[in-house]
Structure formats: structure tokens, C-alpha cells
Amino acid sequence: xxxxxxxxxxxxxxxxxxxxxxxxxxxxxx
Length: 30
Prior knowledge:
This is Maff2 family protein. The protein has one helix and no strands.
């Protein structure tokens, strides 16, 4: 279960990073 929790944390971090990257890319392209 600890491994699963760690995996979810990593996924959330990746999703947040990708979202921030896309957001920044969108702002730059405006």
C-alpha cells in the first residue's frame, strides 16, 4: 500500500508539472 501511495504521489507531481508546463506554454503563445 505504501508503494501505491508513493506512486500516486509521483503521478500527482507529474500531472502538476505537465499542467504547469502547458499553462506556461499557453501564456507564452498568447
